[in-house]
């Protein structure tokens, strides 16, 4: 909670550092505090998407299912490099090791495909929430050995498109929930990307999509 993330303005320009605690309190979020984040979507060689269930210990959205890895670049030079979203890719590689046990040596930065950014606000409970500009990164066709960290990840699951749609449709029946950013990305973008994993360049943009 004391790690320093990157506080940004609504145009994603860095302003200062801020602790994870400060940037996830609803009291500061309601005053406009915004920070930078990323979401990784890893697909295996069969085109299945790796999902994770967040651990019970997460302060925001515990036990909810989400995309492969979601976290924040930290406020130090390597993870603040802007060109080609390089800093965010450094952070994503670091967190994939921390959360899922994927060695950093197994991934090159150029294997991460940056597509776009979304700006969203989502309360988790009365105290904590998220207010982020979220960089979306795709890792297509990667078969990687996983060793999830139980402090971060409760469960993992690979799904096809029909299986994910079925999970969304039946979530009440199954007693599961999905994180708000994952639902936003899935409903607006994910399926068209999924159909074109070999041609992701056509989807790259410089926009910040306000949700």
* Assembly state (oligomeric): single chain
Calculate the terminal CA-CA distance, rounded to whole Å: 26 Å
- Tell me the CATH architecture: Alpha-Beta Complex
The tally of beta strands, per DSSP, is 10
Structural class assignment: alpha+beta
Low-confidence stretches: none
Basic shape: globular
Provide the helix percentage: 10-25%
Question: Could you characterize what this model shows?
Answer:
GO terms for molecular function: isopentenyl-diphosphate delta-isomerase activity; metal ion binding. Residues 10-20 have a biased composition (Basic and acidic residues). Residues 33-184 form the Nudix hydrolase domain. By secondary structure, this protein is of the alpha+beta class. The chain has a single domain, classed as Nucleoside Triphosphate Pyrophosphohydrolase (Alpha-Beta Complex). The chain has six helices and ten strands. It has helices spanning 20-24, 26-29, 86-100, 161-169, 171-174, 180-194, and strands at 4-8, 14-19, 35-42, 49-54, 65-66, 69-71, 113-123, 129-139, 153-159, 208-210. Strand 1 and strand 2 form a beta hairpin. The relative contact order is 0.20.
